[in-house]
Design a protein that fits this description.
Layout lengths: L6 E6 L9 E8 L2 E7 L12 H4 L1 H5 L9 E3 L8 E3 L2 H19 L4 E5 L12 H8 L3 E3 L5 H11 L15 E5 L3 H4 L1 H14 L3 E5 L4 H4 L3 E4 L5 H14 L5 H7 L3 H7 L5 H8 L3 H12 L4 E5 L9 H15 L8 E3 L11 H4 L10 E3 L3 H5 L14 E5 L3 H4 L3 H8 L5 E6 L11 E4 L8 E4 L5 E5 L12 H11 L12 H11 L5 H7 L1 E3 L4 H4 L59 E4 L15 H7 L4 E3 L1 H7 L6 E6 L2 E9 L7 E3 L35 E7 L1
Parallel strand pairs: 6-14, 7-13, 8-9, 8-11, 9-10, 11-12, 14-15, 15-16, 20-24, 21-23
Antiparallel strand pairs: 1-2, 2-3, 4-5, 4-16, 17-18, 18-19, 20-25, 22-23, 22-25
Helix pairs in contact: 3-19, 5-14, 9-12, 9-13, 9-14, 12-13
């Protein structure tokens, strides 16, 4: 008997990854998918996706997926629930929001969200309810701020060279991102350059990870010292006359001032800070000096330090000094998030947005929920929350404070989720959420240039609802459903946004599946001038006055020790450096099989990752008398966690690494790695310094 081949559908990956891959999905029935593949026709995805998304059916059809609204019974965090109907659940949310507003005013309600889906309707529609009801705003600081601020400080625009140009480069520098694990498509194009052009791949990172293993030249430096390396590379360029002085005279602001600033920042100076050898630094500088078509792919990882904005600006300045921007396959790229020009005013409810409503820092949720007056901006306590698309009890800094706040008896928390996450376990009400395969939405790639329509591929379970549905139903119960933007379907909202933004309408996008918005060559390479007022690259960063993609509102002002930032590229000594009490530096990069806290619930991902571990260099282990697999306690003033030890000669002495994010209950004491992460604001505009922790280490 002939078997009927599965139907094939096209959609987009919704997850918080720069690739935003175009997907081909096997549809096995009205409510079931099979294998997921990368779309071969998409010139960036190029048929390649990460292993975790290839196994996406495992997540969509997981036996532990939430399928019923649940109300807490008993104490918070106890794990006792009773099923309720959707109507009763939504009535309860509305009732508790109204009560919170009656006691403390509308700002006592804080809708809290982030990037569990990157769909512009399902993710951002929560703002429409926020603004209509005058609930507290959220300052989105946790992920991109340090990197974006540092990049725009130089270019004036959050955009760069087409990432597909890596394939025609003569040297690809992958700086501060484990692309094999977190953005496999970068490697697709970089490896093509190596195969077809003999281009070396240079990787700059803090430990031997899968991307380091792909490197032809690997530079392993101490965490938080990237700015020093960048300065030494530019010092050599000026010293050896490989700096493109004609290019700098035309396109940069103060090359002479930069050269004078860098006079004392030679490879020996940088070696003492970074832990690299002088030879390694000189070798990379020589390679860059003789290779005009050098492409810098600058990641997020090295920016997640307290000096991250300065480090990003310094690394970005390197291809400018060498003049690499002039050539195909040369220049730099971090994100294309500045090219889209989307008008989301109807999706987000801009017409009723009030700038006087306070902003609460997303990264400081622990301080906010435990009543810190500064974190609360002098306003009322938060006493009701709707949480969508994020898992702060696991992913946010200062985890003990976050948990303490969520456990407050006077705080009502509704979590809309696909699984019983660490945050959902502490909620008063949990609502089951749809996956991206089960609704319509639109996506755009930060790491590439395509706008993609992600249509509904299968039906969601009967008892599950979309984010859009929850926002719409709460608007009805809270008396704002008559405001602009409410009462429309996802497709209607997408069509409105496309029309307002000057794009082709949804019908055309759905037919073509994606639209490539890559700027022309001269614009992407800034050959007509950079995005600054005078068209010149800024070596002298204006950290106080600059425009930024996500600058805090005036009510928050500047954040962190801005006065300690150098205007010229430098090593900013703002990191939590090791000291006698805390002799180690801890970084917490992502694990290959997880994406933030997503996929940590799937069997395939957990089996491949094995267990949460703490990596240490053999010399450090021997000095402390520690053995492989030994349980150790790692801690600082914020708390401590227990982990088994993995002795790894791919580490640098004095550096510890834990790859995550594992659920909190995967740890011995039920507390995750972000117990150790600080939430103090970073200069100049905030951001979480996840890889910047000084710690002590002891045997259990």
């Amino acid at each position: 008997m002939n078997q009927i081949a599965p139907a094939k559908a096209f959609t987009a990956c919704p997850h918080d990854c720069p690739s935003t891959c175009a997907l081909e999905v096997e549809v096995l029935g009205p409510s079931r998918i099979g294998r997921v593949r990368g779309a071969e026709e998409n010139s960036y995805t190029a048929g390649v996706i990460c292993a975790k998304v290839a196994r996406y059916a495992e997540r969509v059809h997981h036996p532990d997926r939430l399928l019923q609204p649940l109300q807490r019974v008993g104490a918070k965090g106890e794990g006792a629930w009773r099923p309720v109907t959707w109507d009763d659940a939504l009535d309860l949310v509305a009732e508790r929001f109204v009560q919170a507003e009656a006691r403390h005013g509308s700002e006592a309600v804080w809708p809290y969200y982030y990037a569990g889906t990157m769909g512009l309707v399902q993710r951002d529609g929560i703002h429409r309810l926020r603004h209509a009801k005058r609930y507290s705003n959220q300052f989105d600081s946790i992920c991109t701020n340090l990197a974006w601020t540092g990049f725009v400080a130089g270019t004036g625009k959050l955009a760069g060279v087409d990432p597909r140009e890596m394939a025609v480069s003569d040297c690809v520098v992958i700086w501060g991102t484990n692309a094999v694990a977190t953005q496999v498509n970068v490697m697709t194009h970089a490896v093509r350059a190596r195969k077809e052009r003999g281009a070396p791949i240079v990787v700059i990172d803090i430990y031997d990870n899968p991307t380091m293993h792909q490197a032809d030249m690997a530079l392993k430096l101490r965490p938080g010292t990237d700015g020093a390396l960048a300065c030494a590379l530019m010092h050599v360029a000026f010293r050896d006359n490989t700096a493109d002085r004609a290019y700098l005279a035309r396109f940069a602001d103060d090359a002479a001032g930069l050269e004078a600033h860098l006079a004392s920042r030679d490879p020996a100076w940088a070696a003492s800070i970074t832990g690299l050898t002088v030879g390694e630094i000189e070798g990379l500088a020589a390679l860059l000096g003789r290779t005009p078509r050098s492409y810098f792919r600058l990641g997020y990882g090295f920016s997640r330090q307290r000096n991250g904005a300065v480090a990003m600006h310094a690394a970005l300045s390197v291809p400018t000094v060498f003049g690499h921007w002039q050539y195909e396959g040369g220049g730099a790229f971090h994100s294309n998030s500045g090219i889209w020009g989307f008008d989301k005013s109807l999706i987000e409810g801009h017409s009723f947005r009030d700038p006087a409503i306070r902003h609460l820092d997303q990264s400081r949720i622990g301080a906010v929920l435990t009543g810190d007056r500064e974190a609360l901006a002098g306003g009322p306590p938060v006493s009701a929350m709707l949480v969508q698309n994020t898992n702060p009890a696991n992913v946010a800094p200062e985890q003990r404070l976050v948990r303490q706040g969520l456990m407050r008896d006077d705080l009502f928390v509704c979590v809309h989720e696909q699984f019983m996450t660490d945050t959902a376990k502490l909620a008063d009400l949990v609502l089951p959420a749809a996956t991206s395969m089960e609704y319509d939405d639109i996506y755009r790639g930060g790491g590439q240039s395509h706008v993609l329509f992600g249509p509904k591929v299968i039906d969601h379970p009967e008892t599950v609802r979309t984010n859009h549905f929850v926002v719409e139903e709460l608007a009805k119960r809270l008396g704002v459903a008559d405001r602009p933007g409410f009462g429309l379907s996802e497709r209607e909202l997408i069509d409105d946004m496309l029309k307002r933004s000057g794009y082709r309408l949804l019908e055309a996008l759905e037919r073509e599946r994606w639209e490539d918005r890559q700027p022309p060559f001269a614009e992407a390479h800034y050959l007509d001038g950079f995005g600054t007022r005078d068209g010149r690259f800024r070596f002298q960063a204006d950290w106080i006055g600059m425009a930024a993609p996500n600058r805090p509102p005036l009510s928050m002002g500047l954040l962190g020790p801005v006065a300690d930032l150098s205007s010229f590229p430098d090593h900013a000594a703002l990191i939590e450096d090791a000291d006698e009490t805390h002799p180690f530096r801890l970084a917490t990069p992502p694990a290959r099989q997880f994406l933030n806290s997503s996929f940590a619930e799937t069997k395939g991902s957990r089996q491949r990752e094995g267990r949460p571990e703490l990596r240490i260099h053999p010399e450090d282990a021997a000095r402390l008398g520690l053995a492989a697999d030994q349980r150790v306690r790692v801690g600082n003033a914020r708390g401590d966690v227990v982990l088994p030890l993995r002795i790894d000669d791919g580490m640098k002495p004095g550096v510890l690494v834990h790859e995550g994010l594992w659920p909190n209950d995967a740890f011995e004491n039920g507390e995750g790695i972000n117990v150790l992460t600080g939430a103090d604001p970073t200069a100049p505009f905030g951001g979480a310094a996840f890889h910047d922790n000084r710690v002590w280490l002891r045997p259990v």
